Amino acid sequence: MKDYIVRASAAGTQIRAFAVKSTEIVETARVRHGLSPVASAALGRLLTGGVLMGSMMKNETDVLTLQVECGGPIGGMTVTADSLGNVKGYAVNPDVMLPPTKGKIDVGGALGPGFLNVIKDMGLKEPYSGQVVLISGEIAEDITYYFASSEQVNSSVGLGVLMNKDNTVRCAGGFIVQVMPFIDEEVLQKLEENIRTLPTVTQMLDSGLTPEKMLEKVLEGFDVEFTDTMPANFYCNCSKERIEKAIISIGKRDIQEMINDGEEIEVKCHFCNTAYTFSVEELKVLLKKSR
Ligand code: ZN
Asked: What is the residue-wise DSSP string for 12-63?
């Protein structure tokens, strides 16, 4: 089963909800970046939250960036998503190792204290940006806090990554539920009760629940209407042309130095770890295009 996102509304339009299965996204990130188990869980949760938040944007050209700046051993993470289910991301220290705490992967320990920055580029002059301090470093709570404090939207966010014994990704996914300001008190109480008694995301995914079933559990007792489904993918739009432009922009002097070294160079894309090589001959062509 491929990764996908579902969107739903419930109790009329009082509740809106989003869920995703992101197993392949997280496994792709793990393989590309050589992520350790704790880095897989940390970046996996951020990718899962990012692809959901990206899908909540209105326009095809909108771009969402989630950036974790932190003092813990993972050193920081960046995830970028569009509104079409494409997401990419990286961790500064992909091979960070930490012992589990209480039998669980210690994502909060990997992040340590820090900030979550949310940047939305919606084609306006200035991108929107909001920053919150990390509450727990477990990502889901941090995104919930961001919605409450920066967007004034009451939300519940659940994110989960479960690893196999061989350190591959067993399952990953998550949900975001948001309530409108005009929500009825009884509807809200029922929803809060549902969320209090909800199994964890990894328990739900591991027991075989699809994103739809997961939302039906979150929204148990309500009329749920599924309004949209779309595929979700780890996707990076880098290309040799883009890397060429980056090299050209560093200026004649630096390119000349690379040529003088007489060896081909390798440039890796941060987001997907794809390596692009440039021969001395190619560098000479770029030197001419540079200023
Ligand atoms: Zn790339």
From this structure: TTTEEEEEEE-HHHHHHHHHHHT--HHHHHHHHHHHHHHHHHHHTSSSTT-E
Taking the centre of ligand 1 as the mean of its atom positions, its distance from the CA of residue 152, in whole angstroms, is 34
Write phi, then psi, for 238 (nearest 5 degrees): -75, 160
Judge contact between 62 and 120, C-beta under 8 A: yes
Q: What is the pLDDT of residues 210-220, one digit of tens each?
A: 999 999 999 99
Report the distance separating Cα 218 and Cα 117, nearest Å: 27
For residue 225, the CA-to-ligand 1 centroid distance in Å is 36
Tell me how crowded residue 166 is: count the other CB atoms within 10 A of its CB: 6
| 124 confidence band (pLDDT: 50, 70, 90) | confident
- Partners of 243 in beta bridges: none
